[in-house]
Amino acid sequence: MLGELARSLKPRGVLFSSNPRGSNQEGLSDERYGCYFDYETWRDYTTAAGFVEVAHYYRPPGLARHEQHWLASVWRKA
User: Fold this and answer.
1) Total-model pTM
2) Considering the domain 2-77 in this protein, what is its CATH number?
3) What is the DSSP string of 46-63?
4) Which residue, among 23, 26, 32, 14, has the nearest Cα to 73 in the 3D structure?
5) If DSSP codes are grouped into helix, strand and coil, which group holds residue 68?
6) Which end of the chain, N or C, is less surrounded by CB atoms within 10 Å?
7) In whole angstroms, what is the distance from residue 4 CA to residue 70 CA?
8) Side-chain-side CA neighbours of residue 74 (13 Å)
9) CB 21, CB 37: distance < 8 Å
């Protein structure tokens, strides 16, 4: 899917993602399917698809890291 996104973007196009953060598991959670990746795994997937990282951060801001359940990242098409 990430490869298709990269191919569909214009040169130097941008991808923003906000993913639930976790220990690299996938599955249903309250009727919602999710991929709960840590930053390193998500970075590996996006760079393999042809993206270069611009920035990443954890949400919501102002909380301890273990309470920041979302990984937000910005990527540019290589």
Assistant:
1) 0.86
2) 3.40.50.150
3) HHHTTEEEEEEEEESTTS
4) 14
5) coil
6) N
7) 23
8) 6
9) yes
CA-CA distance, 39 to 28, in Å (whole number)? Answer: 20
Residue entry with tokens 């102002």: 62
pLDDT at 57: 96
pLDDT digits (tens, 9 = 90+) for 7-62: 999 999 999 999 999 999 998 878 888 889 999 999 999 999 999 999 999 999 99
Residues 6+ apart with CB under 8 A from 4: none
How far is it between the farthest Cα atoms of the chain?
A: 38
| Residues 41, 21 contacting (CB under 8 angstroms) | no
The neighbouring-strand residues paired with 27 are 34
